[in-house]
Amino acid sequence: MMAASPSVSESLTASGQTLSGRKSEEIADLIDLFSKTQYRAKEVSRRVETIEKRCLELFGRDYKYSVIHNTNGEVCGHYPQQIVFLEYESTELHKDRFESTVQITKLQDLVNRSKMARCRGRFVCPVILYNGKHICRSSTLAGWGELYGRTGYNYIFSGGTDDTWGAESEPEVPEDDSVRNGDSQLFDKVRGLDIKLLRYLSVRYICDLMVENKKVKFGLNVTSSEKVDKAQRYADFTLLSVPYPGCEFFKDYKDRDYTAEGLVFNWNQDFVDAPLTIPACFTKNLSINWSEYQSWDLVHQTQNYLKLLLHIINSDDESGLLVHCISGWDRTPLFVSLLRLSLWADGAVHASLEPTEILYLTIAYDWFLFGHMLPDRLTKGEEIFFFCFNFLKHIVSEKFSAKKKQRRKNSQFKDTDFTVDDLCKLKSREARGSVTSLSSDFSLITEDAGGASSLTNEAVDLFSGQPLGASSWRKGHTSSPQTVLWNRPDPMHERLAHPLSQEAKSSSSSSSNQSEQGFTRAGSSPMSVPGRRCPSPSERQVRLEAVREVFLAAYSSTVGLKSSAPSPSGAITGLLEQFARGVGLRGTNSII
To answer: Which residue ranges are recorded for the region named Disordered (predicted)?
Structure first.
């Protein structure tokens, strides 16, 4: 008897799964290279060239862009060889809406002349275009030691000339006892060029993530910052000091089995001297008690800072934002990446990219090509890179959405970090049976243990026992070309199961919200909301969950997680292996 030939729909489904599997493998290959190699613009292999070309292709899907040339790292040794300057969105709907007023030749000149103003030459670089406004990244301001050192270095190795400042002016190094005047003149020139670049990019807001006013090593100020510029050269900008722990703090995160709840930074250390400083115009509309910032755990601190950044870029229709830390390659990519993914989940940027594509772009461009030292950070256990993408489960709420929506009146959940819809998605562990290896004492990867973010977002298919991988979602279009939806192919699988993790103590006062509103805490009996039907997850949640799932699968198959103490349930291994199976990957590294 002749076997029936496969239907067209079956062939298309198989083809789509194969394509999705290839894209997931592309993510794994990228992370594998990233974990072994730090990017240097002057040492680019064919494999890295392929990554750079892929990034350009992904940017070109939605934007008209120009390139700032950084061949062999001539401008900055740890910026991409081809730095993308996004001019305007290239979709038909927005093609003529936000045209760039920036001339790329003038921008290249300003970049070349201003790079000395910033630590390690990591100049102000636009990386995200949102509603015609540039979100930029950089390092902090260079101190006098680095300025004089680099000036002398350039003079010696350029044959006795230094054209950093252009033909109009030469740096004047003081030759008499007027050291203060000499420093002032040099800073005027260098920082004046930095300010010109900021203004040319229409940047008004500067968000400084340093916990120090100035970085001090061996008793010397090696870097400075806009907030402590004595001449107040940056007074025309809106400066925000939002101190956030450096990469060293994320070793504590790893040592606590990747649990961010209850992990509070020690603000009493001697080197911590930068206070939280935010203009009142940004604090009054966010309903956040900023005076309590030193008691926030890592989850709430990151959530609140992201809300602040999103509020800033939505409060001004014309001005851009600069985010920086010290060197601009740890905390800076964390928030740049979260901003890019959050805006993408709203359909506001990179509208045509699928979850695997936006994940590839932000890992490759925001982290790898801008010099994050992942091999060094992994050796030291400073897992800020992993934290970034695992943290996506904490920002699926519409409260992090850039879309301006009418809030529902008289909602008793409006001040919490979860909604009725979120609670609807919670199912009992018994209902899941042996679908996953997560046990009741598991609190490693899921992290969501009490507090305002008590929901985990590992979506599990109740029928097949597999996680909802990127291959399970199909791409569809709404009436707006700026909106892309990923929908389940089978309407039977509308229900989601969310594993609940162990209750953990948190320093945040919002951890009491659940019990105050009459709900059982996570960790024992199931949560339920009787009398109403659970709706489907929001488009934003679907997108971010898909990105996080692909990341976890790729990370488990390459780097893996190293728990400080073996989980008695083997939950960490089981969860990541499940993600790997869901997108067609198999773990090659044991997770110990």
So the answer is: 499-540
Q: How far apart are CA 592 and CA 98, in angstroms?
A: 50
Do residues 142 and 186 make contact, with C-beta atoms less than 8 angstroms apart? no
CB atoms within 10 A of CB 157: 9
Looking only at the bridges linking them, the beta strands covering 484-487 and 203-208 are unpaired
Provide the 8-state DSSP code for 172: -
The 10 Å Cβ neighbour count of residue 235 is 9
Per-residue pLDDT reduced to its tens digit, 488-514: 344 333 333 333 333 333 333 333 333
Which residue is listed with tokens 């728990």?
563
Gap between the Cα atoms of 75 and 455, Å rounded = 45
Question: In Å, what is the CA distance from 327 to each residue of 190, 210, 330, 480?
Answer: 18, 10, 8, 40
Contact 264, 296 (CB under 8 A): yes
| Residue type at 394 in one-letter notation | H
Would you name the residues annotated as active-site residues? 325
> Mean pLDDT, to the nearest integer, of 98-104?
74
Tell me if 176 sits within 8 A of 371, measured CB to CB. no
CA atoms of 121 and 107, how far apart (whole Å): 16
Smallest CA-to-CA distance from 84 within 355, 370, 337, 317 is with 370
Residue found under tokens 């040492």: 43
Q: Which of 329, 337, 336, 385 is nearest to 35 (CA)?
A: 385
- Reported as half-sphere exposure (CB side, CA atoms, 13 A), residue 332 has a value of 33
The continuous run of DSSP H or E covering 333 comes out as helix 331-345
Rg (CA), the chain: 25
Which residues, including other chains, have CB under 8 Å from residue 462's CB and lie 6 or more apart?
A: 431, 432, 435, 493, 495, 497
Question: Residue 126's beta-bridge partner residues?
Answer: 136
Residue 435: Cβ within 10 Å count: 19
- Are 326 and 418 in contact, with CB atoms under 8 Å apart? no
Spatial neighbors of 491 by CB under 8 A, at least 6 apart, are none
Single-letter amino acid, residue 350: H
**pLDDT tens digits along 157-211:** 333 333 443 433 333 333 334 444 556 787 889 899 999 999 999 999 999 999 9
Q: Could you count the other beta carbons within 10 Å of the beta carbon of residue 177?
A: 8
Residue pair 233/347 in contact by the 8 Å Cβ criterion: no
Query: Residue 497 is encoded by which pair of tokens?
Result: 């199961």
The pLDDT score that the predictor gives to residue 444 is 32
Q: Look up residue 115 and give its two tokens.
A: 């790079």
Distances (CA, A) of 562 to 115, 287, 334, 363, 447: 39, 37, 21, 21, 15
Q: Is 0.90 surpassed by the pTM of this model?
A: no
Rounded Cα gap, residues 335 and 313, in angstroms: 13
Higher pLDDT pick, 554 / 510: 554
Round to the nearest angstrom and report the end-to-end CA distance of the chain.
51
396-410 pLDDT, tens digit each: 999 999 986 434 333
